[in-house]
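How a chain folds remains the central question behind the approach discussed here. The record that follows shows the chain in one-letter code together with its fold in token form:
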Amino acid sequence: MTQSAQSTIYKYLSPEQVLQAKEQSVLLDVRSPIEFESEHIEGALNIPLSELEQRLDEIPKGKDLVMICRSGKRAERGAYSLMCKGMEPKVMTGGVLAWQKAGLSLTEGKKMLPIERQIQLIVGVGVLTGVLLGVFVNPWFLVVPGFFGAGLTFAGLSGTCALGLLLMKAPWNQLPGSCQ
């Protein structure tokens, strides 16, 4: 393996290893604030992956850095990003799901469905309803799935999801103590 290839590999820790090293580590959870509020490892710092590069100054120095997410994939992306900034993060294998599976406790808060899943549900129901109404009632109802398709295309091209922005302002998605 070349030197440059070695430098892009980070160390993985099991949930049990993270628990043992917790006092000497900064646990950085890169999930969304809603996911973090629903459940997280006590003492973890939440900086969403999408904000990580803008909030580097919030990461405490002088301790080992352990990246955490739901299953490990976002933590790997975050670790790679931080490695490019000269840091040496570790990744907890399997994320919060593995932590739970190991029988370790989580701090639980208000249970909320992540915005991404809410979007998937709304778009899925909208497309299915529009197709069924278009086939069985009136072909003009096929405009509904076309509308959702156009919205998804715009979101993919622009990186902005109007439905997601709208859902973030919905009262059921407000975190305790947050302003709308």
